[in-house]
Amino acid sequence: MRPSTPLGSRTADNGAIGLPKGTRPLRVNFQYLIVIGLVHLASLLAFVPWFFSWIGVASFVISYFLFGIFGITVGFHRLLSHRSFECPKWFEYCLALLGTCCLQESAVWWVAVHRRHHLHADDQSDPHTPAAGIVWSHFGWLFLVNRDHLQKSTYHDYARDMTCQTFYVWTDHKVVMSLIVGGHMIAYFAIGFWLGWLPNSDVMSGVRIGASVLVWGVFLRTALVMHAAWSINSMTHLWGYRSHELPDDSRNNWLLGLLVHGEGWHNNHHANANSASFGQRWWEIDTGYWAICLLQKVGLARNVVSR
Length: 307
Prior knowledge:
Elements: H1 30-43, H2 54-81, H3 89-100, H4 107-119, H5 134-138, H6 155-158, H7 160-163, H8 166-171, H9 174-197, H10 203-234, H11 254-259, H12 266-271, H13 287-297
């Protein structure tokens, strides 16, 4: 373990430790830049009146919680990254597919990067430390090639339990990921089309509601779930209070704790990474943990680590 440093010492000066290892020479990953850029541009269509519908808004609210909680928070993070509970293998794969639809790369990639973050939190080998700047930690780290911490050759070092499973190797292929994401987009449009067409058998109403559901339930939701996850990488290592004195700069941020399904209680999480529960005080609301408790009640989660 690294020696403890004064609170905030690594983040007080933007870029104090420089960019992490494996990022030079700096070369832009245009594939990431284009895909993430297009998602954000498409999400802005939510401000165009033609794409507005209450069905679209409802699809956004439901999808933000469905994919944000069960895809990223419960699936990618607490189950796959930290194994804080167990579940049937078929259900684990369903959660992994939900996470894949959030356009945050494959399950094995996400887990490998996150485990490396915990191992090297806020030092030179941390993939997204704010000590290299808040823009870097929020999303800049995604847009470079030659990043040794993001290469498939390093997967086995951090996600050995997943790289030996055919399902995760299969879903790590770009073509397969594209089919998964594209398939769920088609499903959203089709459901919206059916809901719009059903009352009067009007095709144009179906097209408009289908497009509305696609914009609100997929593009806007995906963009906001991205920023929710990215804000944990950046803001919870910069602003908040500390319940545990740790060698890293992790903090509990009450706003993100409420908005990002309990993930904002990040200092608590770093103090006990394998716990399914991030909230440690009565007012540290953790909807991610509530979701796991619900799964436990219906028999889909077992051996939950609560502290």
